[in-house]
Amino acid sequence: MKRSSLLKAMTAALTAAVVFTSVPAAALAECTQFWVPSMYTENGSDYIGRDEDFSYRYFKRYGIEPSMKNVTYFSDETNFTWTSDKTSYRYSFVRDPRDQWDDGPNAYSAAGINEKGVSCSATLSTSYGPEAKAADPLNEESGIGEYNYASIVLGESATAREGVALIGKLVETYGACSCDQLTISDPNESWVLMVLSGHQWAAVK
Questions:
Q1: Mean of the pLDDT values across residues 45-59?
Q2: In this structure, what DSSP letter does residue 48 have?
Q3: Is the pLDDT of residue 129 over 90?
Q4: How many Cα neighbours within 13 Å face the side chain of 57?
Q5: Rounded to the nearest 5 degrees, what angle is found at the Cα of 35, between the Cα atoms of 30 and 36?
Q6: How far apart are CA 145 and CA 69, in angstroms?
Q7: Cα 78 from Cα 92, distance rounded (Å)
Q8: Residue with the larger pLDDT of the pair 152 and 106
Q9: 91-95 vs 81-83, strand pairing mode
Q10: Residue 34: which pLDDT band, with cuts at 50, 70 and 90?
Q11: Distance in angstroms (rounded) separating the CA atoms of residues 170 and 167
Q12: What single-letter DSSP state applies at residue 87?
């Protein structure tokens, strides 16, 4: 192995070790996000994704969502619905089996990529403290949540930045039913979007 390759591998391993050892053991019961920037990879590519620690051998299905006009997105988590005012983009998806979500046809999308090169991986579950809860509680009746994030990003966004802005607007307008993090990327940018409370969010490039 070349010295530069060895250094990259060692640095990546160290980075991963820091990430995993800095996370409380209880947090690993849900999901783990990862990001490996191009400076640490052999082929110069960025790697962004998520490990779902929900269960072992947890079945997923792969498919293609066609382009459609004025898609109405609805949730099995809450009474959330939102109808797009344009034609959606075609995208691939990795979804939970329908029987995990009351046989819903749009069962939770964990990841995918659309025809514009926008990708999304969702979600990492987080939580908020009692002060935030008192100031801005979650909307558990009709708020947006992980059931819809990836589908909306992939169906409606031509860039990662556009996806971040859209989810942020929906969180502000409808509220969120849970605290989550998701990653949204395109060939030029990658973002971590954090839903912090009922109507508050932040995003880091």
A1: 78
A2: E
A3: yes
A4: 0
A5: 140
A6: 23
A7: 24
A8: 152
A9: unpaired
A10: confident
A11: 5
A12: B
What pLDDT shows up at residue 11? 47
User: Please, which residues have CB within 8 angstroms of residue 148's CB and are 6 or more apart in sequence?
Assistant: 73, 74, 75, 80, 82
Among residues 31, 120, 177, 179, the one annotated as catalytic is: 31
Continuous H helices in the chain:
3-21, 130-135, 149-156, 160-174
Higher pLDDT, 160 or 29: 160
What are 168's two structure tokens?
Answer: 């942020």
| Tens digits of residue pLDDT in 140-186 | 999 999 999 999 999 999 999 999 999 999 999 999 999 999 999 99
Q: 17 is written with which tokens? A: 């070790």
How far is it, in rounded angstroms, from Cα 95 to Cα 108?
6
Query: Rounded to whole angstroms, how far apart are CA atoms 119 and 57?
Result: 24
pTM: 0.81
In this structure, what token pair is assigned to residue 140? Answer: 């558990």
* Whether the Cβ atoms of residue 76 and residue 104 lie closer than 8 Å to each other: yes
Closest CA to 204 of 196, 192, 186, 195: 192
For 112, the token pair is 């995918």
Is 120 a residue of the active site? no
Count the Cβ atoms, other than its own, within 10 Å of residue 148.
Answer: 28
